[in-house]
Amino acid sequence: MTDLVSIIMPTWNSEATVYDSIKSVIEQTYPNWELLITDDCSSDGTMNILLDFAASDKRIKIFKNTSNSGAGVARNNSIAHAQGRFIAFLDSDDLWHAEKLSKQTSYMLDHNYALSYTCYRKINSSGEITGHIIPPGFVNYSELLKSNVIGCLTAMYDTAITGKVFMPAIRKRQDMALWLKILQDIDYAWCLPEELASYREGHNSLSSNKLKILFSQWDFYRNYLNFNPIKAAWYFSFYVWRALRKHKVHKSN
């Protein structure tokens, strides 16, 4: 019997993309999963799509925030309801490749890894490949402070080792904060060196606005980690340098 994987998905006005994201979960070769979706008060047709899926597949469970609270709160609500040994993350505009769960759970169990991530591709709104992300083979706490090399859509942690770990209650950089929390208690997070997910770049996403990214990262160092200005500037300089290098982003022809 395979271990249950709890998949955490937040939604907010995601009607244009969430169907494909959920389908990529349903099409997994690994059958023992539950998809826990918390909607953050969408005003479009997102909820109708979610309810249709839930009606046809009992592994899909739908929740809703009482007020618009951000993706971190939505994810934590889903984590609170999770029953699985493994916790994995997928946003409502991203996609998994069919063997993602099968390969990643085997990788973690074979090596007794607490936290893992994978390579992934970047796609545009039409689904065309725009780049490939190849993160380092492993990362520890101090190195992750310099650059968040763990793509949230690829991350998975094992609650049998870490317990159930929640995202800190911050609006931005919740994923990086979560990986840092886990890495405080383990030596390394490990990369499965296969491209097993697709990250959709959007014109309105935070990741499409470089200045907002830099501001939120500085704010993360100063106001979440409470680094003094010198320490924050030290890590921020690494972050900017590595962002420019894009940790081995290979543009597609």
Automatic annotation (TrEMBL):
The keyword Cell membrane does not apply. Residues 6-132 form the Glycosyltransferase 2-like domain. It holds the Pfam family Glycos_transf_2. Keywords: Transferase. InterPro entries: Glyco_trans_2-like, Nucleotide-diphossugar_trans. GO terms for molecular function: hexosyltransferase activity. This is Glycosyl transferase. It comes from Siccibacter turicensis.
